[in-house]
Every structure is written in structure tokens, then in C-alpha cells.
């Protein structure tokens, strides 16, 4: 829960009925468990309230799906990314035998023809020892993988690890960084 504290809560204090940390805990647990929308997150919370109370207050119960959606939409993606990276860094204690696979992917159905927005491309670092994504960066285009990989490597503790990448990541600057 301490990692969530870096995310600022911009809501008006006198109107807050549910703690930001509770809403984020609920949302993260629900999504990890397969929730695909705001109503699914609310349903997960109602079903697993006793479990959630072990880690959060939930003094006023589970927020309704509209509240969850509104609060989550106000969160800074950069701050949430920072929170995630720090959380994974603390969870991810590995030895030198860990293999970190760096790869870029284009997210299916992420393009929007009506708004002339291209598909979303992400570069991920996957720990094979833990079967866990330990870092991720969004890029504007697939060609930006080359500049994003060093940025991703800067976020990670790669000393002594085996790093794998595809041909796109086999650039001189990237190899030197590894």
C-alpha cells in the first residue's frame, strides 16, 4: 500500500467518501482477477470485501462503479507508472540467473480510425524467473522501440541479469547499456 501513496488525490477532501488507496487496491485486485469494466470492479469488491478489508479500510463499503471510473480517470498515468515500477522493483528480488526478456508489442484493437489515432505500442520487460512484467513503456510508433528500450533499461536493476531482445533491440547503444 505504501507504493500507492505517491499518487496524489486531487478530490475535494470534504466530498471524499472512499480513500484513494482503497479504490486503487480494489481496482488492481479486480483487474488482476479478470475484471474488464467498472461494473465488474464494483462486483468484485462486493464479493471480496472481507479480503479487501485485510489491506484497506473500506470504511464506507465498496464505491459504486461511477465513482471508481471517475477517480481512476483523474489519476496521472505517469504517477501510476511510477507506483507500478516501484512496486515491481520491491516484489522482484531475483538472482543473476534471471532472464529479462525485452520485447515490443502492438496492442490489438487500440487504433481509432475515427480519431485518426494509430495503434498503441508498448515495450515490456518480462522476468522469466517470476513470470511477471517488471517494467513497461508506451511508445508512439513501433520504430520508437530503439529509443524506448534504453529508457526501460534505466528503470530496471539489470546488473548481472541475462537480457534478451529481438532484432529491433540489437543496436550498438542498447548493447552497450546492457
TrEMBL record:
One Pfam family matching this protein: DDE_Tnp_1
Family: Belongs to the transposase 11 family.
NCBIfam families (UniProt xref): transpos_ISAs1
Residues annotated as domain H repeat-associated protein N-terminal: 2-88
Signal peptide: none
Protein name (Swiss-Prot/TrEMBL): ISAs1 family transposase
Lineage top rank: taxon: Bacteria
Residue ranges occupied by any Transposase IS4-like domain in the UniProt entry: 96-178
Biological processes annotated in GO: DNA transposition
Gene Ontology terms, MF aspect: DNA binding; transposase activity
